[in-house]
Amino acid sequence: MKKIAVLLIVIACSFTAKAQDFGQIIAGSLPDANKYASAYMRPFAEGEIYNLARGWYSTARTHKLLGFDISINGQFAIVPTEKQSFTFNNADYSTFKLSGAASSATLPTLMGGTSSQVINVNTTVNGQPVSTSFTAPKGIGDDMKKNVSFIPVSAPLPVAQIGIGLFKHTDLKVRYFPKTNFSDMEIGVFGVGIQHEFSNYLPFIKKVPFLHLSALAAFSSIDANYKPKFDPGSSVQSPNAVAGYKISAFTLQGIASVKFAILELYTSIGYSTGKSTIDLKGDYTITYNTGFPPPNDKATATQKDPISLSYNAGGVSNTWGARLNITVLKIYVDYTFAKYNGAGAGIALAFR
Question: What region does 211 belong to: left with phi over 0, alpha with psi -120 to 50, or beta?
């Protein structure tokens, strides 16, 4: 669990460090900025949808009446290599062009590596041609490989929840964290799920007491925002910048588990779907070069709420995991096969 904490810290620090670089893309036209941003943020936005749909269970067994558990786990949507970069083509943009002779280049997404590629911006302000440039935003993949090499490049998500036995063979599961400020970050979480065990309804399963079958339906969402800061020398400045994202996910799973003394094995198959939205809101002032001598060498333009992105993801998933039941302490790990494969690990305290 210590390594998981290190990974989450690395991701948080790297993500906020890249927010300023990412903001430079709004120097171009809004269609160009949103096209670039959509490709850059895609693996994070899609990966978090899959993460949010996971981590609901580590057994097919349900609690007795008013039995309960409290669990904390980390979910890691593994980003495929092909989604750690994207192809930038000059022909796809009106105000962005690669510096140099190349007409296309492979650039990192947020979950990718580094780049020294300069992108030139040519646009107009009040009918006057102006220009500037920025270096393609880097990803956080290299930070992860350097500091947390024990896991592939992944979009992470910590999950905390409680489960309680409501009535016969049925658990209510809840994820809740009121929207709270942490320095420049604000985040809130809500989720609810129902797991029902139907093993006792099947005569042939009753004869195999260590085998349990259940079904789960669950929905959860995250609403978060961050206030990026820009260096004084940056060509983009904002007094009220806010980068926000909202993620929601629904999952329906059929679960089976087999309990042997303190060891329990579980598997599931099901379907998940969800949506991510990412917005960059606020008022932004961009400074351009005019090509004229001072004092007419600079021109400024303003943009309001320049970035608005939306992603949908989902599909069939298959999870395999193992859990140690040490009295009330439960320790579990699992792996999920899906469009974004995922690894999970957690601990729980369970009673009844």
Answer: beta
- Looking at residue 325, the DSSP 8-state letter turns out to be E
Tokens of 316: 């069939």
As beta bridge partners, residue 290 has: none
Burial degree of 23 (CB within 10 A; 0-12, 13-18, 19+): buried
| Cα(86)–Cα(309) distance, integer angstroms | 17
Predicted TM-score (pTM) of this structure: 0.89
Rounded to an integer, what distance in angstroms lies between the CA atom of residue 60 and that of residue 51? 20
pLDDT digits over 64-80, tens only?
Answer: 999 999 999 989 999 99
Beta bridge partners of 344: 75, 334
Amino acid at 213: L
Q: Is 19 helix (H, G, I), strand (E, B) or coil?
A: helix
Residue 159 pLDDT greater than 70, yes or no: yes
Domain-wise residue ranges, the chain: 2-80+139-351
What CATH number was assigned to the domain covering residues 2-80+139-351? 2.40.128
From start to end of the chain, where are the E strands?
A: 68-78, 85-89, 96-98, 104-108, 118-125, 128-135, 154-167, 170-182, 185-197, 211-226, 236-237, 242-260, 263-281, 283-289, 298-304, 307-326, 329-337, 342-351
Single-letter residue type at 339: K
Q: Which residues contact 191 (CB under 8 A, 6 or more apart)?
A: 52, 161, 173, 174, 175, 176, 218, 219, 220, 221
